[in-house]
Design goal:
It contains four helices and six strands; from the N terminus they run αββαβββααβ. A six-stranded mixed sheet has the order 3-4-5-2-1-6. By secondary structure, the protein is an alpha+beta fold. The protein has a single domain, classed as Beta Polymerase, domain 2, CATH 3.30.460.10. It is globular, with a radius of gyration of 13 Å. The longest helix has 19 residues.
Length: 113
C-alpha cells in the first residue's frame, strides 16, 4: 500500500505543477517518525495550498486514506502532511532553501520519482 500511496502523492504534486520532487527513504535510519518523506517546491503560497489540496483529494480517491494531520496552511510557506508512514513537505522555493530538509536527512536514500 505504501508504494501506491507514494506514487499517488507524487502524481498529485506533478498534476499541480509542483517542482523538484524528492522522495527520501528513511527506513534504515534510527529514530525516525515515518518511513518516507516526499518533498517538493511551489512557486507561491497559493500553489502550496493547491498542491496540498490536490494530494488530499487524490489520496482519498485512489488510496481511500485520509490525511492524519496537516500543518502550515495558514501561511502556506511550508505545509506538512502526515499520512502515517509517509510525510509530505510542500515548500515555497525560498523556504525550502532556508530549511534544507534534504541536507538534514542526507543519510537517507533518495528514490527517483
Amino acid at each position: 500500500m505504501t508504494s501506491k500511496l507514494l506514487s499517488t502523492i507524487v502524481k498529485a504534486i506533478d498534476d499541480k505543477k509542483g517542482e523538484d520532487i524528492v522522495t527520501l527513504d528513511l527506513r534504515e535510519l534510527d529514530g525516525v517518525i515515518c518511513d518516507y518523506f516526499v518533498i517538493c517546491s511551489a512557486n507561491s503560497t497559493v500553489q502550496v495550498g493547491a498542491i496540498a489540496d490536490g494530494i488530499e483529494d487524490e489520496v482519498l480517491k485512489e488510496c481511500k486514506e485520509k490525511v492524519i494531520r496537516v500543518d502550515g496552511l495558514r501561511n502556506a510557506l511550508w505545509v506538512a502532511m502526515d499520512y502515517g508512514d509517509v510525510m509530505v513537505h510542500i515548500f515555497t522555493h525560498e523556504t525550502r532553501e532556508n530549511y534544507k530538509l534534504e541536507e538534514l536527512w542526507a543519510d537517507a536514500k533518495t528514490i527517483n520519482n
